[in-house]
Design goal:
mainly beta, 1 helix, 12 strands, 52% strand, DUF4412 domain-containing protein
């Protein structure tokens, strides 16, 4: 779930789409759906942890963590959820080398097509630990990354959005499903 959130970009979104999401990494594979509308995003996934989801709302990047199998949810502020964005990487900074998030070196590797969208291919390398890097394919049409490969000593993780369908995502997608009970973080 964490790497999938790495694909969330900072800045204002204009996108309105849904897509299939495929996540593979050292902890196994997960599949799911992503829904994006303006500055709201929802990801629903199924994997070793069961069926989970994350709804990210508005400019403050607060999140609702959905535990579908338990019919429960938790509220989380962006500051408590450090992977909720890519450290401020946004559509305006993507093509310029040197405009990387703090502590990262960014290299523009040209463009490639992912899921039918021309994307800027970018490598981010941790300045303190060169063994940690992320390749990102950023779509300017959708104002967000469509694919990422994160490499570290712990292994390689990949997130990719496929079968993208642009269109009107319903507002109720970004609400807690009916019948879900609120949990406090300590209860998880």
């Amino acid at each position: 779930m964490i790497l999938s959130l790495c694909l969330v970009a900072g800045g204002a979104w204009a996108a309105n789409f849904e897509a299939d999401m495929v996540i593979e990494g050292p902890m196994g594979a997960m599949t799911g759906k992503i829904y994006v509308k303006g500055d709201r995003q929802r990801q629903d996934m199924e994997g070793a942890m069961g069926r989970t989801g994350v709804i990210t709302l508005g400019e403050d990047r607060s999140s609702l963590i959905l535990l579908h199998d338990r019919k429960a949810y938790m509220e989380m502020e962006a500051a408590a959820f450090p992977m909720a964005d890519m450290g401020g990487l946004d559509a305006d900074s993507v093509p310029r080398e040197g405009a990387a998030p703090e502590g990262m070196k960014m290299q523009n590797l040209g463009s490639e097509t992912v899921a039918g969208y021309v994307c800027e291919k970018i490598r981010l390398v941790d300045e303190e630990n060169g063994d940690v890097s992320t390749l990102i394919w950023f779509s300017h049409d959708l104002s967000m990354p469509l694919k990422a490969i994160h490499e570290s000593p712990e292994g390689t993780s990949t997130v990719e959005y496929r079968n993208i369908v642009e269109g009107n995502v319903a507002d109720d997608v970004f609400q807690v499903p009916e019948g879900y009970q609120k949990m406090e973080m300590g209860a998880f």
